[in-house]
Specification:
Elements lengths: L1 E6 L2 E4 L4 E9 L6 E7 L6 E6 L6 E3 L7 E6 L4 E6 L8 E9 L2 E5 L3 E6 L1
Parallel strand pairs: 2-11
Antiparallel strand pairs: 1-3, 3-8, 4-5, 4-9, 5-6, 7-8, 9-10, 9-11
Length: about 120
């Protein structure tokens, strides 16, 4: 069992930056692929980025590529999402998730990110 708690959301002006954190507790953090997802009002939840368990391989949605960076610190059982050059369309609730064997099985409760124009 893994518990995930996101933090770092807030209100920022367009062009600004935020860093989200997701702290994990419970089972071995390092075995999980960690992902960030987001859900805007009235829209489906969408993939943002993921990072493999070793931290060596990352993948990004085209909409955030070049602006967002995912990283992890296995010693601290934490995954981060550095978000730069934020746009109003990045406004959403951001969720982290832990996955194994191709499926995300644990989810956090989310943190709100609001980007004003």
């Amino acid at each position: 069992q893994v518990q995930l708690v996101e933090s770092g959301g807030g209100l920022v002006q367009a062009g600004g930056s935020l860093r989200l954190s997701c702290a994990a507790s419970g089972s071995s953090f390092s075995v999980y692929r960690m992902g960030w997802f987001r859900q805007a009002p009235g829209k489906e939840r969408e993939f943002v980025a993921h990072i493999r368990s070793s931290g060596g391989i990352t993948l990004y949605a085209n909409s955030v590529k070049g602006r967002f960076t995912i990283s992890r610190d296995n010693a601290k059982s934490t995954v981060y999402l550095q978000m730069n050059s934020l746009k109003p369309e990045d406004t959403a609730v951001y969720y982290c998730a832990a996955g194994i064997f191709g499926e995300y099985v644990y989810w956090g409760q989310g943190t709100q990110v609001t980007v004003s124009s």
